[in-house]
Amino acid sequence: MKVGIEDKKKLAVLGVVGAMALGAGVYLYTQLSEPSPAPATAPVIVSTPAAPVVKGSSSGPVAKNVGTTSAQLDPTLRMGPMLVTEALVYTGGGRNIFSASSVPIEIPKPIATARPKPLPPPPPVIPQGPPPPPPIDLKFFGTSSLENGHRQAFLLHGEDVFLAADGDIVQRRYKVLTVSANSVLVEDMTNNNRQTLPLVGH
Length: 202
Description:
Blueprint: H1 2-33, H2 79-86, E1 139-145, E2 151-157, E3 160-164, E4 169-170, E5 174-179, E6 183-188, E7 193-198
Antiparallel strand pairs: 1-2, 2-3, 4-5, 5-6, 6-7
């Protein structure tokens, strides 16, 4: 009788263990065979700029921005508001940047011309000859007559006095050519310059 009871207990324990093993196997099978759920996508939030708060207004601060998803955006072109905007007339006191004739542009006139007037041409250069020879440094202040009727001239050079007739050379430079009563013709032999020396005092 004891042997039969012990066999029943063992069978009951084996049945419980087998049921647990079967349940665990089914659970594992279902967990492995089901596909993993896709990660949830976060909604796209488009923030709009906050309206400025006017000082002194009693309305208080503006409410926080409300996010807008891409599904709420409407890309449809609305002609009504656009036509109203185009029909607005500019009434400001300044210059309309969208109109070329709103305020005439005054271009300042130049004080002076950009290109200066050309200067008049210089006067033509008149070619000049060689400078005149220096004057003969002799003074004629009198004559004397020789026995043959020829005259001699008294010539003064500085403090030196010379008595010369026709053809005589004074100071190794001046040749007396002609002696007359009131003048003497003298030649400077260094430059072939001839001058008539008047009588001093006449």
